[in-house]
Specification:
The structure is a single chain. By secondary structure, the protein is of the alpha/beta class. It contains nine helices and nine strands. The strands form three sheets. The protein has a five-stranded parallel beta sheet, with helices on both faces.
Length: 251
């Protein structure tokens, strides 16, 4: 391990897609603070012809264009050599393992990550031999890997020390505990006849924490019951789930 901040490299055919998000909000603030460093690389810089072409027609015919292997191989090797720390090479692709909070936590402990973004009909199959892992952000089709890469960066960076104004924020968010986050309220206490729960105005912190945990369990069992099966639950949590299921079945 080194004392250097996490370095994130992104290889893309469209760098402009990433520039503004990396400079905005939490990502931008953390970047200025030196919490992490981000380096966006234009794949066309490694094209081998004067037209800077990086794609070609697929062998065997078919629609669309495929990213050629030569520029990707050249780029990944060159970018890897830009720092003494070897990067974890992650290819963004629908075929990959689903990205989740545990993956973000794992990435936040690394020294360096290189995210490789696809475009068009995807990569020449030989490109996948470069990958340490292949990651997907969901079962749907996007124009390219840039938005998925931003999802990975955002989820990872907010876990780094110093990224958030309140160091407890990341620990209390959805999925970190295995549950969805409890409901949040702010001023005014009454809005269009809808009132903030009395417990949140009570000043009783122990009672508030119990309420928040109960609401997190209820939120999860209502909207993401699949998460309940994989989350460590206390007897009190299970009682909340059972009470919800009894009411639901009674309707």
């Amino acid at each position: 391990m080194t004392d250097k901040p996490l370095r994130i490299d992104v290889l893309t055919a469209f760098p402009a897609v990433l520039t503004a998000p990396l400079e905005a909000s939490i990502l931008g603030i953390a970047l200025k603070r030196g919490v992490y460093s981000a380096h966006v690389h234009d794949l066309r810089e490694w094209a081998r012809d004067k037209h800077r072409s990086i794609d070609d027609y697929p062998y065997g015919g078919g629609p669309g264009m495929v990213l050629r292997p030569e520029p990707v191989f050249d780029a990944v090797r060159a970018i890897s050599a830009m720092d003494s720390r070897s990067p974890r090479i992650v290819i963004m692709s629908p075929r990959g393992t689903r990205f989740d909070q545990k993956t973000a936590e794992r990435y936040s402990l690394m020294e360096r990550i290189l995210l490789v973004c696809g475009r068009y009909e995807g990569f020449d199959e030989r490109v996948y031999s470069l990958a340490d892992e292949v990651v997907s952000v969901g079962d749907y089709v996007l124009t390219g890997g840039e938005i998925p890469a931003l999802c990975v960066i955002d989820a990872t960076v907010r876990l780094l020390p110093g990224a958030l104004g309140d160091e407890d924020s990341a620990a209390l968010e959805s999925f970190t505990t295995g549950l969805l986050e409890h409901p949040q309220f702010t001023r005014p206490s009454v809005f269009e006849d809808m009132q903030v729960p009395e417990v949140l105005l009570s000043g009783d912190h122990a009672r508030i924490e119990r309420w928040r945990r109960e609401q997190a369990v209820l939120m999860t069992v209502r909207h993401r019951p699949d998460l309940i099966e994989t989350t460590s639950m206390s007897d009190a949590d299970l009682a909340v789930v059972e009470g919800f299921e009894r009411k639901r079945d009674a309707k």
